[in-house]
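#onboarding

Welcome to the new folks! Below is a worked example of what a typical request in this channel looks like: someone posts a single protein sequence, and someone else replies with the predicted structure as tokens. Don't worry about understanding the tokens yet, we'll cover that in week two.

Example request:
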Amino acid sequence: MAKQHAPGFLKLVTDAKTRVKECSVDDMRAKQAAGVPFVLVDVREESEFAAGHIPSAIHIGKGVIERDIEAKIPDLATPIVLYCGGGFRSALAADALQKMGYTNVISMDGGWRAWTENGLPTEK
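Example response:
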């Protein structure tokens, strides 16, 4: 069952999604298969990441991404795909990164939920 989100949160997400690029799980898999270089960033909580994540993903939680991103990904033109549980936190994070000057940020719509529902590989 999908989580029910508060109206104020959904309003923020809807607004952010007007400014960010999104991709589907299939789009991301196609990028991987084609060898397109990008950094995959899991913005979920540390406990969520530890319980399971997409192979090759690095963890930078939504709560600290603005503080920590420049140390981990200093090049503002680096292609970045962000994901979270369902695509909402990653959209908010993508919006923030764009405001910081990152120019090639994409939020994966559906996030971890869509990834696992499609039976795709995970790791701990």
